[in-house]
Amino acid sequence: MKIKSLYIVFILTLLACSKDDDNTRTIVVEEVKVIETFNPISITFVYEDGSSIQSDDCISPDLNYAIQIETTKNNEGNKNVSQIEYTINGALYSMSFSQAGIKRNPIVLVNGKNIAELVYTAVSVELNYTAQDDFELVD
Length: 139
Hints:
This protein is mostly beta strands. The chain has a domain at 35-129: Immunoglobulin-like. The chain has one helix and nine strands. Strand 8 (112-118) and strand 9 (124-129) form a beta hairpin. The radius of gyration is 32 Å and the shape is elongated. The model has no long low-confidence stretch (mean pLDDT 79).
């Protein structure tokens, strides 16, 4: 019984002891800056000059085409460049935006279905191009 009492006193003594109050913790809080980014809102196939391709337009290999992306401002923070990633027929590309608006990159259409998609948003557009093969006029 005497051993149990000594054991209990020893445990209570350990519990009653605490670390010195001089040991203080320093918590560093990092400042989080709001970064201005630009969110893509649309992706479209256009003529190289930016005019839209109408549904009844003839897609010609003699004309130049582009992919056009429109962005909007995400917030009012510091102005940084945003990389907007997109794919054309599965190949990954990106455009840099330093302000909200519209940008275009020239492209070459492939024979058949051309699909452009904004990465991370699943917004996509499709354009069918059928190349006209050489033909002979038969009398």
